[in-house]
Design a protein that fits this description.
5-stranded mixed sheet; homodimer; 425 residues; Alpha-Beta Plaits; TIM Barrel; 40% helix; 17 helices; 2 domains
Amino acid sequence: MAKPSVVRAAYWIETPYEPARAAEAMAGEQSTGTFIAVPGETDEVRERSAARIVSVRQSEVVRQPSLPGAATPIGHDGNYHRCEVVLEFPYANFGPSIPNLLATVAGNLYELQEFSGIRLMDLDLPDEFAAAYAGPKFGVAGTRRLAGVQDRPIIGTIVKPSVGLTIEELRAVVRGLAEAGLDFIKDDELNASPLFAPFEHKVKAVMEEIERASERTGRKTMYAFNITGEIDELKRRHDLVAESGGTCVMVSVQSIGLAGLAHLNRYSELPIHGHRNQWGMMTRCPMLGMSFTAYQKLCRLAGADHLHVNALNSKFYESNGSVIRSVQAIREPLLGGYEAMPVLSSGQSAAMVEDTYRELGTCDLLHVAGGGIMAHPDGPGAGVLSMKQAWEAAKLGVSAAAYAESHPELRRALEKFGGRQQGGK
Amino acid sequence: MAKPSVVRAAYWIETPYEPARAAEAMAGEQSTGTFIAVPGETDEVRERSAARIVSVRQSEVVRQPSLPGAATPIGHDGNYHRCEVVLEFPYANFGPSIPNLLATVAGNLYELQEFSGIRLMDLDLPDEFAAAYAGPKFGVAGTRRLAGVQDRPIIGTIVKPSVGLTIEELRAVVRGLAEAGLDFIKDDELNASPLFAPFEHKVKAVMEEIERASERTGRKTMYAFNITGEIDELKRRHDLVAESGGTCVMVSVQSIGLAGLAHLNRYSELPIHGHRNQWGMMTRCPMLGMSFTAYQKLCRLAGADHLHVNALNSKFYESNGSVIRSVQAIREPLLGGYEAMPVLSSGQSAAMVEDTYRELGTCDLLHVAGGGIMAHPDGPGAGVLSMKQAWEAAKLGVSAAAYAESHPELRRALEKFGGRQQGGK
């Protein structure tokens, strides 16, 4: 008989209890147990549905709890044990359902008194999930085909100011960028359908400019329209973009939920650009929430073709090491596929390219510079060129500084933005 | 001219920068600014869309950052300033859209280096949201009508074991509880549609038992079927429950997203029981995430008729003070309405009732005891009676101990569960 399928979940916990007891509380609460023995929790029920403790490995002991509200066990010695706990949950408890998987692996356990810290680090899902979730329809290859870019990252920008432009002001910005031959433009996550620039008008104006520019440049800039909204709006907005000749839609994944993303992915005909704003809430506290390693698997299953990972030397709190791990996680095949494209964004400019290529070693990236293109001293067109030149240099193995000697747009970008990576944390 | 509508958002921040500068970073990043000045951020754009700092009030200075990754400003004196910051965002930037509101008030700002702590404490929304979101269709009054309970809390239980029962085992549990005259039964959040007890079979078996018991008791137990699933499943499952004569559906709000909840609420014909599992991830770190005060407003707008708040003396980390504030927040009218029913659940039994009534001073509650009913020493029927007796005593102003002298089910419950409230934290 085949072994029943399981979901394996790895956690990082901190607990005032003996590690084994804390692991039992996790396994019990998230499967057949509760705070007290109940009739009906028979051997058959446990056999069918109890979570199993695979391993408990203590790594350190601390004297201060990371999070408030943990219990003080009778006779507590003041120690808080930090451990890696791996659990296995019977797949049959929830079936191939991300929403119900989440209630199991990332649900009430965050609130249990047994822990002064608990973080979901990784998830290992059985093949049944692959049958239930089609995943990205475009991924790296499909996005490259639509954007007409091979052999280097897709270079993009965010319309700035993030929000506040009228349709006519937006039109002028898009015209400049599309005529400069930019591969990719995206709405800011703050900008979906402002009252002074409604989505429908935006699509019409943007696509007119992109089509017009493509007649001259021979290339059609990919524009990620931020379709974030209610479930029915997603469909209407996606369909409008597709009918208007657009080639990408963007969503704030946390705003529409993974269920909203999976729903969109059932009918979508365009790459889905996944923005992870709000994610910081779930991950910035090191002893709570979820790691990106786990989260990105769920996003890819649910259908994200592109997924934001911040960027090196960004304006965000995240370390470069963490960003590098995020890119590696996305590039790792999931259930044999689910190829998605990491999106580097935040505080980017041509000055970041050299480090980025050295650290990541791949060009299968969507490299988005907002201010770094829009605020180039010689205008957005020069900003686009400076990004392309920086990637040419990186691929040739030439330093950006050396390449800049013969490439004025890159030189000017390095002059303006080059100091930023020394600042910050 | 009428003043343009705004959303007011209150935050608790911790920052290594001067508080005013940190507040400017928040306002800038979440409206018209970015890390560097860009052309196009004109006075008109700012007038239309810039967020406004209403107030910055410093409360304390600490020497250690709460969260990692904050910048070290040049010349930093080692102080981290904790402040309340109130911002106003132009409503026109996002319109009456919870998904887009979230990207603005709770988006990328959690990741900014300017902060070593940032938490959304409250939201004040303009009336336009009321026109866009119908909110709960049943609330307290409608739920009471359907459950046939006035003048005391609706008393409920969770089917335990949480997961693992076959349909026939579940049938026996439901029969016992419905025949005991229980007002309300809910699925556990772990239990939506296990492979060994699929949703469709569950609805059939449960409703047969509930209808049969109601013929004898004259009362129809409300059963909250956990319909959590993908967007299309929500509709199919809701419709099946409604067609089968069921009177409540339950969802894991974080699993389906607020957008999923609002979508369900557009067609739902039954009270929506909102379970907040996964919420701990967003709130347990005191210097990150979101307060329940803000979150519950969004849940009510999106249509939750019932909303979990943990409970007094629960098995969770949350303090009683925090639970009391949560109940008060839900009972506060929102935009003139959006009445919802607080659900007390976790570690509950008849032994918790006296404290609960004293602290909350209301019976407009759904009081759910899982183990406290199912594990009553004389069985679930006696568990139900013990809860009713405890609430009778509380309303009469008689102590539970005194009332127990003439009420054996209550006495036995106090004997078994009465010690728990002294334990824990």
